[in-house]
Design goal:
Ribosomal Protein S5, domain 2, about 260 residues, about 30% strand
Length: about 260
Amino acid sequence: MKEIISRITKEYLYRLISEGKRIDGRDMYEHRELKIQSNWIGPAEGSARVKLGDTDVVVGIKMDVGEPFSDTPDKGVVITSAELIPMASPNYEAGPPREDATELARVVDRGIREGNVVDASKLCIEEGEKVWLIFIDMHILDFDGNLFDACGIGAMAALMNTIVPAEKFDLGEDYPLPVDHVVVPTTFSKIRDQILLDARLEEERIADTRITVSTNEEGHLVAMQKGLSGVFSYDDVRNCIKKSQEIGDELRERLENLSEENI
C-alpha cells in the first residue's frame, strides 16, 4: 500500500512541477521563507537558529585549545557534526550518527573548508603545539526537507557571530572570530527532467538526484556535492551553478545584515 501511495504522490507532484507549479505556490528556483536568528544559544561561542519553511535547525559553535594535526602544525582545526534526533522526524532514531547525518555534516563542512571561511592559519597559537579547535554542532529540531541549505546557512551565521574565548584560556582578551569569506549553499533536486530549488519533504522523497552548490561573495564556486543515484547533465550542472551564484547574493545579504533582522 505504501508503494502505491508513493507512486500516486510522485505522479501528482511531477505533473504539477512539469506545469511550472509547486504544492506551496513557489517558483522552481525560489526558497521557502527564511528566518535567521543569531546568538540563539547563550553559553555557546557562537550560534544561530534557522527556519527554512518548516525545517528548523540550531547550530552552535564551541571553541577549545588543542594540538594541531601532524600534517598541518600551523593550522587550527574545524570539526563539523550533525545530530538527527527523533523529535525532528519519525524516521530518525536515537543512537550513533546515521549515514544521512554524516553526509549532512560533510557537505556543510566542505563548503566551509573549501571556501576558506576561516583562515586556519589564524587559529594557530603555538606552531606544532597549540591551536584553536572549532566545533560546529548542528541540531535538527524539525525536518521538512533540505537540511543542507538550512544547516549551511546556520553554520555560516553562527561563525559570523562567534567570539573567540581567549580570556578563558589566558590568551588575552576575547575577540570576534575572523571570518574571511561568506559561503552559502544552494541545493537543487531533480525529479525526472525537472529541477527545483529547496525541495520540501514531499518533493525530496521523490527526487531522483540532488546537488548542493556552494559559492562565496565573489560568486566563485567553492564546493559542490551530488547526492542520490540519479544524474545531472552537463547543462543541468551549469544552470544550477548559475542559479546558485544569483541566489547566493541574496542569502549573503541576509547574513551580513543579521544584527538588523534578529527574529
